[in-house]
Amino acid sequence: MVAGVALRSSGALALCAPAARNLARASRTSLGLVRPPGPLPACGCGASFGKVPATPPKSSWAAPSCSPVPSRPRLLCRAASSASVAAPATDTQEGAAPAGAGGEKAVARKQRVLSGVQPTGSLHLGNYLGAIKNWVALQDTFETFFCAVDLHAITLPHDPASLAHTTKNSAALYIAAGIDPAKASIFVQSHVSAHAELTWLLSCVTPIGWLNRMIQFKEKSLKQGNEEVGSGLLTYPVLMAADILLYQSDLVPVGEDQKQHIELARDVAKRFNDQFGGNKWKKRGGRGGRIFKVPEIMTPPTGARVMSLTDGTAKMSKSDPADGSRINLLDSPSEIAKKIKRCKTDGFEGLEYGNPERPECSNLLGIYEVVTGRSKQEVLAECGSLSWGQFKPLLADAVVAHLEPIQTRYNEVVADPAYLDTVLANGAAKANETARLTLKNAYDAMGFLLPSTLR
Question: Which HAMAP family does the record match to this protein (predicted)?
């Protein structure tokens, strides 16, 4: 017998009374129930019982390893017992209540990101550099959902003859730009009916005053005229909130012009949770806890706002009637060169960033910076002393070279319609699986009689 512990032939341990009391005391201490009168032995991770390491190991943010000897009981330190410490890019399973909220047991998952682009017209360089290029960088770290938001495309007058075609082309360009269907869910918004259903539920709890304050609604309604503007334009931010909240999104990558809409989505989520979630839901026999995750804004690191080629103060846009204002992702090399040659510049000498009197200069240098992968300092060292006549061909060549592999891959994708259909079907199936759980919880929390398919 060693230190009050007798070994049996089976390999298990038999404890004498003092050792049993020590084990019980140490176990309670490791759970934070009792503070020991003196230091207890450290386990393999080097942390003493009852003490929590300042931070978990940075490499994985997992609990330190305390490997047990097979068939032998072990004493766990506080750090080793905290096996639920999650990685930074994890959260609870979609639709599940957070721990301690009276809901189901939380399940760790990667943090979730959702984003999309309207399939109106051809996707352009602004869509790519401001959004899609950054999505590619996210798909390895996060659980990602990327959709062609065709329901948003009809909030303004649209061409029914081209909507299906541009929607499919947008999805093909997602893949061509580097979104991997094996890593991300690519789907069409209208193929997941929960988007429209949740929009109605959210619209019933969203104050009209919140929507009237949306800057984009004010700007677009002025252009269209009040008599011509549909109510869909007013409720557009509610649909956007439904898109985000359906997937319990942790992060939403958006440009500066969309931040107000994400703030609205956050406010709607909080209002809905307060009105219908928590103990109110539980008392009615529901799961309890929150219904929606409150998302955070993710600002893309580069290229977040690409401006028009004809007006350096206006965002590059598909809705601009002048095709020369944008570089479409499928423009030919000659079209790209022509648009850049004719783009608006100024009469200043040299090239520079950040001069408020030279918005076009900052925009074109920014495009060159992103497509070449150079830093601002490198761009200025190379181009700062150039004239516009020298810089424009350089920029055109860089844009053409950057878009060439995307155009090649796009042609491969559209040449195989069955492949694209399969990608969209699989993406919609994955999206539906997640969205239906959230929708079920929203219906249940509001007191609806659920159909048998949702119970």
Answer: Trp_tRNA_synth_B
